[in-house]
Write a structure and sequence with these properties.
By secondary structure, the protein is mainly α. The chain has helices at about 30-60, 65-95, 95-115, 120-135, 140-145, 150-180, 190-195, 195-210, 225-245, 250-275, 290-320, 325-345, 355-380, 390-410, 420-450, 460-485; strands at about 10, 15. It contains 16 helices and two strands. Helix 9 (about 225-245) runs parallel beside helix 15 and helix 13 runs antiparallel to helix 16 (about 460-485).
Length: about 500
């Protein structure tokens, strides 16, 4: 990664110089990393853990298909659209302060999710969860970059990438186990309630382990830019969700056209504010780096394919094949094993990541998805689901070969003075891609399910049809990475 630590860090109200590159990490480093990784883990976990709980929530709260998607997507959209603004607030008012505030709000929202009496309340609480996560997560990369230097920083970023992937992959198993254990008869509600003690524990150590730090640049928040970005993304996802639910009326296409107009206005606003030297929410100058721009687009495409896969696989296994949440989660362990093994291998090459090596990851993912589709087709409703284990392992390998290395590649292409903003954009690309991917998958999965009769035996067909565009997205992500410069990401 080419970013550099800030010239000075405020610690407990006192300024001290940041350690030189390559110097040993400061005393609170280990504790700081553990605390911020807890925050990272639970926020990513809560996006993916809901996938395995959707069938139980649908049955308990009588949710429609669109409402079931909103349980996942509402969190993702609020998370995504607020990440850049959350990062900017950390730069202005202190990363540790915003991390702790986000953690506290996330804890309250999680408690609200766990006791939601209706699907409407649950969706609102999930949106609040996502907004809280958007305040907390952008501070993590800034805190790691401040506390760690040199090789220690490389290792910390590799662990950060590993934690993101493990939270996504193992979230399904953790959610299935919690639902199956059914503590105090709470069923799916325990997947949200467990966040409360984790947040309390993390908050107890935040102040004593994390030094306060701020970014450089303007002194005011670009509220207009924040509103424009949030409105554009929210409009896209809302139109995709409502479109497939209401059979694509004219107003849905008008909403998508309106989102395109909003994006154009956003670009105009950011350029105008940058030209005036007024600190735009997103600095247009960072996109002059081809490696960063193309890598960021590849990240969006890759997470479109990754996030939607978890959602549709959970529906197929539970509603189509009748597996319990725990049984479904156990199958996800094959993905986790592939991911973990590939991540360990990828970590050895973290200092020399290049586009050609990274491009192999999404290509392996596409091969895994293709093998899964063929296996599901052959299994029908009578074949044993354990035949899915080897092909899920291949898909997990593709994820592990992509997630961490692609993150390193993209951040390595960022201009040093834009490193903080680049981190925020990368988080947005990851979470936004996963959220929009679920919405897009729904526009394929549910119509295919209805066309095949809507019964349990229609789920294999709907799942295999949905995998076709996901395979194409994997191949496209690989081609995009190859289109980026092949130079090593780290120097």
């Amino acid at each position: 990664m080419t970013s550099e630590a800030s010239p000075e860090v405020a610690v407990e109200g006192r300024a001290r110089p940041a350690p030189a590159a390559g110097a040993p990490a400061a005393a609170p480093s280990a504790g700081a990393l553990l605390v911020v990784l807890v925050g990272t883990f639970i926020t990513v976990l809560d996006f993916f853990i809901a996938n395995v709980a959707v069938p139980a929530i649908k049955a308990d709260l009588h949710a429609t298909a669109a409402q079931a998607q909103m349980i996942v997507v509402g969190y993702g959209v609020a998370f995504t659209s607020g990440l850049i603004t959350g990062g900017r607030l950390g730069d202005l008012y202190g990363r540790r302060r915003m991390f702790a505030l986000g953690m506290a709000l996330f804890m309250v929202a999680s408690a609200a999710c766990s006791f939601a009496p209706s699907v409407t309340v649950l969706v609102v609480a999930r949106i609040a969860q996502g907004a809280s996560a958007a305040l907390m997560v952008p501070q993590v990369l800034g805190i790691i970059g401040t506390v760690y230097t040199g090789e220690a920083r490389d290792r910390a970023f590799n662990v950060y990438g590993l934690v993101i992937g493990l939270a996504g992959v193992f979230g399904q198993f953790i959610g299935g186990a919690l639902i199956s254990v059914d503590v105090a008869g709470l069923s799916w509600r325990t997947i949200f309630l467990i966040n409360v003690p984790l947040c309390l524990l993390s908050l107890a150590f935040t102040r004593r382990t994390i030094p306060e730090s701020r970014g450089q640049g303007g002194t005011r928040l670009d509220l207009a830019g924040a509103l424009l970005v949030t409105a554009a993304l929210g409009l896209v996802v809302f139109a995709l969700l409502e479109g497939q639910e209401r059979h694509w009326p004219v107003w849905v296409w008008e909403a998508l056209a309106g989102a395109a107009v909003l994006l154009a206005v956003t670009v105009w606003h950011l350029r105008r504010r940058a030209a005036a030297g007024r600190g735009p929410l997103i600095e247009p100058g960072m996109f002059r780096s081809r490696l960063f721009s193309v890598g960021l687009l590849a990240t969006v495409v890759y997470f479109l394919a990754m996030g939607s896969f978890f959602f549709t696989l959970a529906l197929y296994l539970q509603l189509g094949r009748g597996l319990s949440p725990l049984e479904s989660g156990l199958l996800f362990l094959a993905l986790g094993a592939g991911y973990f093994g590939a991540s360990i291998v990828s970590a050895r090459f973290a200092a020399s990541v290049n586009a050609r090596r990274v491009a192999a990851g999404p290509l392996v993912l596409a091969v895994g998805y293709t093998a899964i589709a063929l296996t599901v087709r052959d299994l029908g409703m009578s074949g044993h689901v354990l035949w899915l284990l080897p092909v899920l392992l291949v898909a997990g390998l593709g994820m592990g070969l992509t997630t961490g290395p692609l993150t390193n590649l993209v951040l390595g292409g960022a201009v040093p003075e834009h490193a903080a903003a680049a981190s925020g954009l990368l988080n947005t690309a990851q979470e936004g891609g996963a959220a929009v991917g679920v919405a897009i998958a729904g526009t394929v999965f549910f119509p295919a399910l209805a066309h095949a009769g809507g019964h349990a035996d229609a789920y294999p067909h709907a799942f295999t049809v949905t995998l076709v565009p996901l395979v194409c997205l994997g191949v496209l992500a690989s081609l995009l990475v190859l289109a980026a410069p092949g130079r090593a990401a780290r120097k």
